[in-house]
Amino acid sequence: LSSCRCFSAFHLLRCVRLRLCSRRGQNRLPLWIREIWAYMRLLAKSLYFNSLTDSDVVFDSVFEPVFLTVDYVTRWFGLVFVYLVVILTSSIVGIAYVVLLPLILNTYSPPWIAWHVCYGHWNLIMIAFHYYKAANTSPGYPPTEKHDGPVVSVCKKCIIPKPARTHHCGICNRCILKMDHHCPWLNNCVGHFNHRYFFSFCLFMTLGCVYCSISGRNLFLDAYNALETHYQTPAPPYTFKDKMIHKSIIYMWVLTSTVGVALGALTFWHAVLISRGETSIERHINSKETKRMAKWGKVYRNPFNYSRLNNWKIFLGVEKRSHWVTRVLLPSAHPPHGDGLTWAVFPVKKDLIPV
């Protein structure tokens, strides 16, 4: 009798359990919600999937949607930035020809007139030439087919071998040889084949802005005082043309001074990087490697630093003394040193390009 009671109790508990399980199965969440939840759990676990995960990996993973949005916006608004550069530069050139040039011809002595005319036109030609070349020259891409050149890794996005100093651009959606950065003002990446054009444009644009700011300072003060001075007696009878000239001079001086300071700082920073033989991306990589090697009691040295003078010779393509004039101070479309695929990876004491 006792055994029959035990069997009945066990059977009752089993029936209750099966009934609860069947109800639980009926109340399960929809499949699409369970899939989203499983995907979110997978993303969370991917942040600590191995010992190589650090704060940078977590930061990149969390802000990946932000980076994708910025890349998308920059890609589609690239031409807007290019048109903005052309319009602003053209406005300054127009003011220089319409307003400043007549004042120079009527005020300055012949030697000063010759100086302003020659320097101004030389600077304008250098700005226009290097901007056009920087925006229209391909930065250089690694071959997509199999080749015998040396590679250091495989791009996780392009799934192609990457030579040394090559990095992937999310905006161009391609790997770039010796990539420095993607410049929205050029609507182009700055890489091996147009890096010199980009730097020269920044340099000559800075010189042009400084030239306009210094030479137009007195004109700016006169124009500002003419518009802002409160007269106790009736103000001078300025015509509409006079007021527009004053406002144009103020606009030119404020714009060139602001751009000169901002672009000058950027140009100086890139000059420092060129002197060290590294790009903007390599600056961050080398900084991390320096800290990592320091923990081991070792000193990290940039393998692409060939001494300050050699770095500039290689960057500018200077192979003989006359090239400092024909390739640096005059417009030149000569190709850069090397093909961007292979690099000498050890510093040398002698000049790579003797001059």
TrEMBL record:
Pfam families from the UniProt entry: DHHC (PF01529)
Question: Which reactions appear under catalytic activity for this entry?
Answer: L-cysteinyl-[protein] + hexadecanoyl-CoA = S-hexadecanoyl-L-cysteinyl-[protein] + CoA
Which residues are in coiled coils? none
Q: Where in the cell is it found?
A: Membrane
The GO cellular component terms are: membrane
- Membrane spanning segments where? 76-100, 112-132, 197-214, 250-272
Question: Which PROSITE patterns does the entry link to?
Answer: DHHC (PS50216)
Say which family it is in. Belongs to the DHHC palmitoyltransferase family.
Q: What is this protein called?
A: Palmitoyltransferase
Q: Which organism is it from?
A: Astatotilapia calliptera (Eastern happy)
